[in-house]
Amino acid sequence: MRTGTAPDAPAPRAARWLAALRPLLRSLVRRRPAPVGPSRPDQLRALVAVLDEAVAAQRPADEAVAACGESGPVSRGTARDCGQQSIALHRLCARLQDLGTTDPELLAAQARAARLLAYDLWMLRASMNLAFTVRPGDRTEAARLRLNGLGRPADDLRRLRDTLRAELPET
Question: Which of 45, 79, 141, 150 is most buried per CB count within 10 Å?
C-alpha cells in the first residue's frame, strides 16, 4: 500500500531508463520553426537564370535541327552536334525541375518552360531519327527536307523568359 512517501527501494530498471531518456525525448518532440524558403524575387532570379541559359542553348540546337534537313547526305558532325545539344537541353531540363519553386505563378511558368524544353528535345531526337534512318524512303526523305529549325516553341520560350525578366526587381 502506498502512502505517498518516497520508496526506499531503488527505482525499477525501466523507470531509470525513462528518466535518463526523458531530456532527449523532449528535445526531439519540441517543435522547431519550419525552414524559410527563398523569397519570390530570389525564385524569379533563379528561374530567369536557367531560362537565359536555355534560350542561349536554343541557337545551336536550332542550327543542328536545320542541318539535319539540308539536302544531300548528312555529316557525322551533325549527329555529334545534335547529341551535344540534346545533352545540354536535358541538363537544363533537370536544373529547371530542381529549382524548388514554391510561388504558384512561378510554378506555372516553370512548368511551361519545362514543356517547351521537352519539345526542343523531342525535335532534336526526331530530326536525328529522320536524318540517320537505317531504311531511307521517299516519305522519310521528304519529311527530313522539311526540317528547318525548332520553330515557334523556341520563340515561345524566349517570350516567356522576356516576360519573367520584366518582372525582376531593379537592384
Answer: 150
What's this model's pTM, rounded to 2 decimal places?
0.73
Q: Would you give the DSSP letter of residue 72?
A: S
Q: Do 96 and 116 touch, CB atoms closer than 8 A?
A: no
Burial class, 65, CB count within 10 angstroms (exposed 0-12 / middle 13-18 / buried 19+): buried
Dihedral sign for Cα atoms in the order 127, 128, 129, 134? positive
For 40-81, write each residue's pLDDT tens digit. Answer: 888 899 999 999 999 999 999 999 999 988 888 888 899 999
Distance, in Å, from the CA atom of 169 to the CA atom of 132, rounded to the nearest integer, reads: 47
Contact 61, 84 (CB under 8 A): no
CA dist., res. 93 & res. 19, Å (int): 53
